[in-house]
């Protein structure tokens, strides 16, 4: 494939998201508005590659956090599952917390030339835990999202 365009978002989270729900919850950039990563494909048969790195925080030993990436197409479908991620974010077995960058990458085939919006939701599997996408700062090193349109 040939790269047709690249869309970049960096350090867009201005308020940490702390998720304590066992139901999927929007991951926001400011505490109330969900993170939206957008691209308008030039060709309907293109593939969209998301390469990202997000500083996360996971609290409570032995519990799991879940994140999923969803797609909305302007004037079309919404909340289509693109990728899901399940992990224990610990630096040693049963350690109680860790702040570390996590890659959220996927390849998608939206089959459209309409605007495509990707957004993320998170949840925890046990009510004692918590999970967060944190703000960009000197200590946390921020986050980045790169959408590549690849022509076929």
Name some characteristics of this structure.
152 residues, mainly beta, 5-stranded antiparallel beta sheet
Describe this structure in words.
The chain is mainly β and 152 residues long. Helix content is 0%, strand content 52%. It is built from no helices and 12 strands. The protein has strands at residues 2-10, 17-19, 25-26, 37-39, 47-59, 65-73, 80-87, 97-103, 106-108, 116-124, 130-133, 143-151. Strands 1, 2, 5, 8, 9, 11 and 12 form a 7-stranded antiparallel beta sheet that branches. Strands 3, 4, 6, 7 and 10 form a 5-stranded antiparallel beta sheet that branches. It is globular. The chain starts with a strand and ends with a strand.
String of helices and strands: EEEEEEEEEEEE
Question: What does the average pLDDT come to?
Answer: 86
CA radius of gyration:
16 Å
Give the helix/strand class.
mainly beta
C-alpha termini separation: 5 Å
Shape: globular
Helix content: under 10%
Biggest beta sheet attributes: 7 strands, antiparallel
Give the low-pLDDT segments: none
The tally of strands reads 12
Question: How large is the count of helical segments?
Answer: 0
DSSP strand content: over 45%
